[in-house]
What we know:
The chain is mainly beta. The chain has strands at 3-7, 10-13, 18-25, 32-39, 46-52, 57-59, 67-72, 77-82, 91-99, 116-117, 121-126.
Amino acid sequence: xxxxxxxxxxxxxxxxxxxxxxxxxxxxxxxxxxxxxxxxxxxxxxxxxxxxxxxxxxxxxxxxxxxxxxxxxxxxxxxxxxxxxxxxxxxxxxxxxxxxxxxxxxxxxxxxxxxxxxxxxxxxxxx
Length: 127
């Protein structure tokens, strides 16, 4: 029933920009967190950014000031605006959703909190 589908990935040169989108369906919870994770080959999946139903946001240290997360409730779409891309940003990017979730001080997007995942979209940044 719940489905998340990422799009917008691609190949760009360092310093370039991309906008990722995550179209959701079947997810109508009033208190939730949606997030972007990424995983590079041979590395663990890490939380990149998250936004909750109240508009509070989280950003990983490595992307602060470069990435912006936003959501479009009427269209049930999650976005990640990525600017000043670096080769280190190369990874498969996944969107995920968690029920009964709110971002507060000290919160991090632990994988175990998110029960719904998309298939991922590849981002490749070349130097």
